[in-house]
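ok posting inputs for the zinc ion job
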Amino acid sequence: MQPLLKALFDLLLPSFCLACEKPLGSLPELLFCKDCLKRLRFIRSPLCPCCGRVYLVAPSGDHHCGACLAKPRHFTRARALFLYEEPLKKVVHRFKYQGKTACLPSFTRFAKNLPQVAELGEVERPDLIVPVPLHPSRLRERGFNQALLLARAFFPKDRRVTADLLVRLRPTEPQTNFNGAARRTNLKNAFGIVKPHRLTGKKILLIDDVFTTGTTVNECAMVLKKAGAAEVMVLTLARVKEDY
Ligand SMILES: [Zn+2]
Ligand SMILES: [Zn+2]
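and the output
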């Protein structure tokens, strides 16, 4: 952009940090101030090679976590960009519940530079990139599906992004209202497939906003595989950290 034009832009459209809302001087590449940027934690090894659980305490090499060993998942690999903690949590809340989508171009820039996105999107060569769907009633209420917007932000102009295969058959309570087995019951028979022939033998990359226990993506992966998908992998914006 021309310097003069950029100066004009900065004047007309001042930018603010997505997390602390401090004004940012010149139109920056990432809409985070230096302090908030420093506090964002990117996910990296050591982690569980299956569910992507991060080992923050007494780190050793990558190894399967207890949950994955006890009960194999329907997906082969789940990865996330960030740990789900402040200051990112605030940004995700504003995005999901207040419709503030200004964060998306910054997520695109992060995604471009993070190895886990290239690993799942390019190296693994999924045939389809599928966002976790919302029920039409929730979609009407919110106006957008955050998982679809994230899929497009992580993989801009990628024709593999497909939002009309996996659907939510019935409205469900937010998963945050439940723990453990109740999370699975809440999602039982909640997802379905339209046009299953498009899934046969396909490798799917499932996209969601936050990986908490993985119940939602696991349920989606099960439905996708039952319908004929060869493999399901998962990429989320953030992952809840478990301390142990
Ligand atoms: Zn800030
Ligand atoms: Zn695991």
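notes: The longest strand covers residues 203-211. The two ends are 48 Å apart (CA to CA).
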